[in-house]
Amino acid sequence: MSKIIRKSLLLLLFAVVICCVLYPLVLLAIGQTFFPFQSNGSIVNGPDGKPVGSLLIAQPFTKDEYFQPRPSAAGYDGTASSSSALASSNYALRDRVARTLGPIVKYAAGPKAGQLVASDIEDWFQHDVYQGSPHIVAQWATMHTSDAQAWVNTDSLHTQYVSDWSKSHPNIVSQFIKSNPSIPQPAPSDLAVTFFQSFSDENPGKFLSAVADTGADGKVATVIKPVGTGTDIQSAFFDMWRLDHPNDSLQDIPGDMVTTSGSGLDPDITMENAVYQLDRVSAKWALDLKRNQKDVRSEIENILQKDSFAPLDGIAGEKMVNVLQVNLALRSLYGAPQ
User: Per the domain annotation, does 8 fall within a domain?
Assistant: First the structure.
């Protein structure tokens, strides 16, 4: 019996050594010798020589000088890979797509063909009339309660703004409590709809956005202020603007500009997507560099073509570009954006 046990233990030890020691070491040696870049995560360095990301994982870019990746249901968190799993009928999907479209969609026909609708959204918003009724913000908060509450909870500055408002409007808060006896001590998010209704009455044609403000001491701080223009308005109210302008012809948008990938971390975008962003990117670089936009656009197009690829060397699928790789090429060519 002891002989059988001894043989079994020896076989187990042999299997452990082979599978858990020798096999990983062999793979490590092969990877580090022949594929060091890929086996170390395809990490790339910035101009200062420090790692800036992986070519395998998408990351957001905040400046207009750079191309943007696909939306991410994982918040571009490499440890939280996931798809949105939202059906086409889901309100959350429609809202996210509409928010993406607002600042980027263009007219397809008419005298404004090729122009962004963003400025027209702002003009319409400032007139403060939706479907023939005044107070767009109040209507938005009533129709999109979850969005109004999300706005309050998204940022501590937003929460504090509503909290300060509640202290300066005790009568409105008392009426809310009277109408909602189950909420005797409402949190800022509970007051979201009531707050925006009050704000809309007091600030027609305005919304709230974070802006840089210089204090009396000369220090710049981020504060929440009423505004009549900006990407927050273009994003939040595009869907309502569209319902008010159903006959305006708008350009089709590449699907991967508004849809997430299965992983939420896809680092590549289609060439069609990149070309759609090209006007914005080239215009901003031309402004920074004080150069002709046409020349800058041509240079960036060359970068896109040079760095593009297609599955199976073009046999299957369409041309793609890696967002991080292209943005690093722009940084290398033009330097740091202003």
Answer: yes
Expressed as residue numbers, the domain containing 11 is 2-40
Beta bridge partners of 268: 322
**CA–CA dist 251, 229 (Å, integer):** 23
Is residue 268 located within the same domain as residue 338? yes
Residues 265-319 pLDDT 10s: 999 999 999 999 999 999 999 999 999 999 999 999 999 999 999 887 767 778 9
For residues 64 and 286, give the distance between their C-alpha atoms in angstroms, rounded to a whole number: 11
275 shares its domain with 305 = yes
Tally of domains within the chain: 2
Q: What is the pLDDT of residues 192-233, one digit of tens each?
A: 999 999 999 999 999 999 998 877 777 888 999 999 999 999
Helical (H) or strand (E) element with 302:
helix 293-307
For the record, the structure tokens of 193 come out as: 């709809």
185: in domain: no
What pTM value is reported for the model?
A: 0.80
Residue pLDDT, tens place only, 38-94: 777 788 888 888 888 888 999 999 888 999 999 998 889 888 888 877 787 888 888
Distance of CA 40 to the CA centre of its chain: 27
Residue 334 CA, chain-centre distance (Å), reads: 24
Residue appearing with tokens 């594929």: 35
Q: Is residue 31 domain-shared with residue 6, that is, in the same domain?
A: yes
Domain for residue 252, yes or no? Answer: no
